[in-house]
Write a structure and sequence with these properties.
The chain has 347 residues and is an alpha+beta fold. It has two domains: 5-268, Sandwich (Jelly Rolls); 274-345, no CATH class. It contains nine helices and 13 strands. It has helices at residues 31-34, 52-59, 61-69, 108-117, 133-136, 226-231, 278-289, 294-308, 331-345; strands spanning 21-22, 42-44, 76-82, 102-107, 125-132, 156-160, 164-168, 173-180, 182-188, 234-239, 243-246, 251-256, 261-268. The strands form two sheets. Strands 1-2-11-8-13-6-5-3-4 form a nine-stranded mixed beta sheet. Strands 7-12-9-10 form a four-stranded antiparallel beta sheet, with no helix packed on it. Pfam families: Cupin_8 (PF13621). This is Cupin-like domain-containing protein. Residues 118-283 form the JmjC domain.
C-alpha cells in the first residue's frame, strides 16, 4: 500500500494521544463498579508485579526468556515470520490476496531462541500468538493469577519481537497483562468503525477483521476519515507488570516495543456457547441481507432495530416463562439454540 511522501502525516503521532484512565484499588468485589460498568479501557499499573515471570523480566529480557523456556512443555507452535521490509506490521500482501508474513511449525523453545537471536531492525520479526498457557506452560497456571475474574478464565500467552498488530476488536472482554518487554496499546471506541477503514471480514491476518490504516504512518489521502478516528483515540505504553482492560468491541492496536516481549491475556464473556459470539452472526447476516432488494432490506432493518436495539422493547404481552431467547437465557436454552442454529445452517 505505497503512498507518496507528501500524503504521509507523521504528525498523527500515537504518543500524542491521551492515555486511558488509570484505576487502582480494584478487587473482585468492586471490579464491576470501578472497571466494567464504565465501558471504556482502563489501565491497571503493577497489576502483575508479583508474578515471578514479571520479576524475571525486570532483571532482563533474557532472564524472562530463560524463565519461560525452563517451564515450557515445548509443543510445536506456529512461528510467524515477517520480512524486514514489513517493519513488523502484520498485514496483507500488496494485492490483499494473502498475508505479508509466512509461518512454520516450531517447538516453542526453538521459536523463543529464534526471537532472541533476532534483535536488529534490519532482520525479520517474529511472533507466536495466542498460545494456551494450560497446554504449553502448565506449571505457570498457579503463578499467572488474576484475582479479578472468578472463576478466572484460562490465560493465553503471546511472544514476539518488535511486531505490530493492526487495530482490531475482540468478541469478549479482555484483560491484557504485559509480562515482559513493553507494549503500546492504541484504542478507538466502537463508533469509529467507519473511520478505521476495516478490511475484508473473511480474510484476516489472525481471525479478526483489521483496520487498513497504518497507525504509525497514516495515509490521509487513502484514509481521510482516520483524522476523525485519531481525535477519538487513546494510547498508552505499558511496562512489565502493567495491565489494561479492553471492553468488547473496542478497536485496539498493539505494538511490541522491546526486542523480546511477552503478553498474557484473559478473555471472558457472558455468552454460554460459541454460537452466541457476534462476529459469526454478523457474517451470516451480511450473507442473508446483502442480496435483498432495497425495500426488503429496509423491512429487516426495522426488525433488527426492534429486536436488538430497542431498550424499551415490550415483552409484557409474553409470560416471563415463555420468553425464550428474549428472556433470561440459561445454559440449557443456549445449548438448545446452538443445536437449532446448526441444524438450520446445515439444511
Amino acid at each position: 500500500m505505497a503512498s507518496s511522501e507528501h500524503s504521509m502525516h507523521p504528525g498523527y503521532a500515537l504518543e500524542n494521544l491521551p492515555a486511558p484512565t488509570e484505576v487502582s484499588g480494584v478487587t473482585a468485589e468492586n471490579f464491576a463498579e470501578k472497571v466494567t460498568d464504565h465501558y471504556r479501557p482502563l489501565v491497571l499499573r503493577d497489576f502483575a508485579a508479583h508474578w515471578p515471570l514479571v520479576q524475571a523480566a525486570k532483571q532482563s529480557l533474557s532472564a524472562a526468556a530463560a524463565y519461560l523456556t525452563a517451564r515450557c512443555n515445548n509443543k510445536p507452535q506456529k512461528l510467524v515470520s515477517l520480512p524486514a521490509d514489513t517493519d513488523g506490521r502484520l498485514f496483507y500482501n500488496s494485492s490483499i490476496s494473502g498475508m505479508n508474513f509466512s509461518a512454520s511449525q516450531q517447538p516453542l523453545n526453538a521459536a523463543i531462541t529464534t526471537m532472541l537471536a533476532s534483535n536488529s531492525d534490519d532482520s525479520n520479526r517474529y511472533c507466536v500468538q495466542c498460545v494456551p498457557v494450560a497446554d504449553n506452560f502448565s506449571s505457570l497456571l498457579t503463578e499467572l493469577t488474576n484475582p479479578l475474574l472468578n472463576p478466572a478464565p484460562k490465560p493465553f500467552i503471546w511472544l514476539g519481537t518488535r511486531v505490530t498488530v493492526p487495530a482490531h476488536f475482540d468478541e469478549a472482554s479482555n484483560i491484557a497483562v504485559v509480562a515482559a518487554g513493553k507494549r503500546r496499546f492504541t484504542l478507538f471506541p466502537p463508533e469509529q468503525v467507519t473511520n478505521l477503514y476495516v478490511g475484508p471480514l473473511d480474510l484476516t491476518p489472525a481471525g479478526q477483521p483489521i483496520s487498513m490504516v497504518n497507525l504509525q504512518q497514516p495515509d490521509l489521502q487513502a484514509h481521510p476519515l482516520y483524522a476523525q478516528a485519531y481525535q477519538a483515540g487513546l494510547s498508552v505504553e505499558l511496562d512489565a507488570g502493567d495491565a489494561i482492560y479492553i471492553p468488547s468491541p473496542w478497536w485496539h492496536s498493539v505494538t511490541s516495543l522491546a526486542d523480546f516481549n511477552v503478553l498474557v491475556n484473559y478473555w471472558w464473556s457472558n455468552a454460554y456457547v460459541a454460537s452466541a459470539l457476534p462476529l459469526p452472526m454478523l457474517l451470516h447476516a451480511i450473507q442473508a441481507f446483502n442480496h435483498m432488494a432495497a425495500g426488503e432490506r429496509q423491512a429487516w432493518q426495522h426488525m433488527l432495530q426492534h429486536y436488538l436495539f430497542n431498550p424499551d422493547h415490550p415483552l409484557a404481552h409474553i409470560p416471563e416463562n415463555a420468553r425464550g431467547v428474549q428472556g433470561n437465557v440459561t445454559p440449557q436454552l443456549a445449548q438448545g439454540l446452538h443445536q437449532w442454529l446448526a441444524a438450520q445452517l446445515n439444511r
